[in-house]
Amino acid sequence: MLALPSRTEIVEVSPRDGLQSHSRAVDTRTKIALVDALTDAGFPVIEVTAFSHPRAIPNLADAEAVMAGITRRPGTIYRALAPNLRGAERAVAAQADEVLGLATLSGTYTAKNQNMTVEQALDQAICAFALTQEAGRRFVMALGMSFWCPYEGTIPEADVLRAVERLHDAGVRRIYLAGSVGMEDPRHVSRLFARLVGAFPDCAFGYHVHDRAGFAPANILAALDGGARWLEGAVCGLGGGMAMPGGERPPGNYPTEDLVHLLEASGIGTGLDLSRVIAVAERAAHLLGLQPNSHVTQWGTRASQLEAARPRIPAFTHSGDALQ
Amino acid sequence: MLALPSRTEIVEVSPRDGLQSHSRAVDTRTKIALVDALTDAGFPVIEVTAFSHPRAIPNLADAEAVMAGITRRPGTIYRALAPNLRGAERAVAAQADEVLGLATLSGTYTAKNQNMTVEQALDQAICAFALTQEAGRRFVMALGMSFWCPYEGTIPEADVLRAVERLHDAGVRRIYLAGSVGMEDPRHVSRLFARLVGAFPDCAFGYHVHDRAGFAPANILAALDGGARWLEGAVCGLGGGMAMPGGERPPGNYPTEDLVHLLEASGIGTGLDLSRVIAVAERAAHLLGLQPNSHVTQWGTRASQLEAARPRIPAFTHSGDALQ
Description:
The structure is a homodimer.
Chain A: E1 9-12, H1 14-20, H2 28-40, E2 45-50, H3 63-69, E3 77-81, H4 85-93, E4 98-104, H5 107-114, H6 118-134, E5 138-144, E6 148-149, E7 153-154, H7 157-169, E8 174-178, H8 186-199, E9 204-208, H9 216-226, E10 230-233, H10 256-265, H11 274-288, H12 295-299, H13 302-309, E11 315-316, E12 322-323
Parallel strand pairs in A: 1-2, 1-10, 2-3, 3-4, 4-5, 5-8, 8-9, 9-10
Antiparallel strand pairs in A: 6-7, 11-12
Helix pairs in contact in A: 2-3, 2-11, 4-6, 8-9, 10-11
């Protein structure tokens, strides 16, 4: 039997992780409308933008404008990615409540895509953390390819523990694991979280859900069983997976509306209203001109199906014919 | 932590449960080719056809011809659905190794669709079982809507236990649970299997995987954790879900190729070669003129991605240009 918590927290990443790799550029006004809709839907943490070099993430070159334009709700945490110290300075200046650092645990991937070693990427993130902490803001560290890499295969769990130890020594206390490719399996997910939670009891670990293999529902429950304290998704499944060597872009972020549906059905509280999450996914789809890539927006909930199955009393016209 | 077995058995249902509700009629020759391909792929149990009234299941009116035309491999179990005593007689005459009985545990659904009570449906199945047993063949009972019904909501677990007790008293020892609608949640699945396995230790229970909500991977592991001894899928996800009151047909049977992929990734043996399962799904898709509705046929396995990521030595033409 899984050891599932009675509640967990949901972080919504569509405006940053979703839009970062979106095939179409989205204007600042639309991004602001998306973030505001997510605020109204009640998400406790929203990943708004990234403070990167505009050449690195052209889709998010308007980071300061978005941060300045959103309507912030007191108590909601507005997060921004800061890939380095300069990014952290900008994020703090732009009033981000939480700064997200990032390193990918595959040496091959990090060398190819960032021209540095994993240790150098961790160094960079630790500097971003130090500045963020000095500014009195929250910091969370993303560890990409925590489970598997298309170049290296399975990432040794010892490598993950070593990276977390380094971050922990530097004072980082909030870390999330991402599969990035979305090919991790539930036993690995459960085991790795359990090891990390056991080794670093003063840290909180989250699971950022990617889903290429279709295993995500099992991985989500496995992460919670292993002690993950929060989960990350993107409405509509926004954010295709990492472009693969062949160039195609598979499913990426798990749709938040399916995530919340699964948790609610499994008796795990999120503090969110599923119908409002579904509604904001539909709103996001409308804003972005796409179809939500989720089960619940297409096939409904148990409540919506019970409603659809209810017999209806026909209404009669004056001629006595039944109207459907 | 989940208590997962080291191995489980896969039953392949595409030729019957898949084709039964397929939107296009498939000719006898194609059905035979499908079954033969599944035999070659190594499935231990294949659900070939149904011995129903041709008006009840027009797609499978050629049951005798299909059974007579397939090339049977020694050791493979060829199963056929028999909704009643007459169906069981025909199945036995057609040399089915295993007869599948069926009842749906929602009284409202059974009244609407079969014009009888659940008890009458169980009676009918028990008669089919008695004849099958007399003929020395295997029998397995399908319990549809074991978890939830769009008319009645959650099916009380006590109702399921009562139905199983009735079947067990009659001598039935192999029973599978199906969600039918595919909206069941993992805690319910795990709990119900554990209760049944605990109450009827001399029975073997299987889980027939439907997936409307997208929870299937979690439900699959939950079923195994609860003590299910086998799993049922359909290659390509063939077999749309039950037509809902609005008329639309959502996802139904979980794709066998994704099922086997999940199990293999989770270290659970199936006796099947995943690459052969993927190949037969692609063959089935070709035979039936459709796209497989599965993750693994579209997005690959870890092995295929490692292969795709390998650097390639360019081949040079006589002019010295590198060919990709």
